[in-house]
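I'll show a record.
***
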Amino acid sequence: MSRRTRVGAMIVSAAVLSAVTARAADDPAVLKDLTAVIALQGQPCGQVVTATKQADNDYVVVCKDGSRYRVFVNAEGRVVVQKQ
């Protein structure tokens, strides 16, 4: 493999890794909002530590106590918290 090809591959790899890292980082404001939503629905959680966005207004969250929930807005416009 030529030096130019190796450098190009390293640049592409770095760009992909930084994009994945940026996407995986959880926004503290979103985590706080999801924690509040779960508490208002009466589910045990304590604090949301990670949230994975599935679609608009659709998250899979992991709580500090290990609980997992899917938090989403249904077709009627209501927020739903489903234990996973």
Summary: DSSP finds two helices and four strands in the chain. Residues 3-24 form the longest helix (22 residues). Residues 5-10, 12-25 have pLDDT under 50 and may be disordered.
